[in-house]
Amino acid sequence: MADWRCLLGALLLPPMTATADFSEALDKLWNYGKPAESEARFRTELATYPPGSREALEIATQIARTHSLRRQFTDADKTLDEVAPALATAPARVRVRYLLERGRTRNSGGEREAAVALFKDALSASAADTLPGADFYRVDALHMLGIASPAGEQLAWNLKALAAAEASAEARTRNWAAALDNNIGWTYFERNDPATALVYWQKALPLREAMGNPSTIRIAKWTIARGYRALGRLDDAEEIQLALVTETESASEPDGYVYEELAELAYARGNAAAAAPWAAKAHALLKDDAHMKANETARLARLASLAEGKAP
Prior knowledge:
Largest sheet: none
Order of helices and strands: HHHHHHHHHHHHHHHHH
Structural class: mainly alpha
Radius of gyration: 20 Å
Strand content: under 5%
CATH topology of one domain: Serine Threonine Protein Phosphatase 5, Tetratricopeptide repeat
Distance between the termini: 22 Å
Number of helices: 17
Number of strands: 0
CATH class of one domain: Mainly Alpha
Helix content: over 70%
């Protein structure tokens, strides 16, 4: 649960079939929480297509993404460099996906200005994409602009993405609305408007529930609880987070972000002693998280202080 705005959550579905739309079937091989396992599946699939084919090129863009998710940016760029020479003659879909992954690599590496330029190129390239599912990747480009753009521009891009998703004739593209409601909520939250953020987060939950992915349903619930904490509704927030403890631990998937929230809730009530064990559990799980180490050192330090029963 590092950055909810980037998470789509993927179900592990059956192998690709010849009759399925290739891009959609390829995306079903993803488990975004386990990029190394996803890479292995992509490489198995890659071996079934001729080098330089549209399919092989598109698979390579997703292999690159497995590297960027692991912060292996040199490997991601090397993989995309191998795709680049074929872009002039490949279908527009390959170019769109190449630009999206090059942009995500730059964004994850902290080069946001370069990332925005690449996402804008992906959006432009999507106009020439006539393959099935083109709307999905157009919305993806808009959604990434809503993440990488300067703060003052993010809401406009996210609202454009939401409008495009809701207007699409493709059910898969309409499913973007859940992630976009989440992202719009975070934009308002970062503008110190948690009440409006909560409205969007509450819209996202039933959409996530309809999609049926337990991981993203949990994220939606966690986020609503975060909104409750910001609004001082500590009992409501705690009820959700304790239920998530039961659910995640029963699934053998303990979640450091849930423990962190319970520590913060206890601290908000002035009970440092109650916060300490939750903070210790959170810190143990999050101290090696790549996103947290790269972007949230102050947050990790706060957890360490709380775990020792000290005021941060």
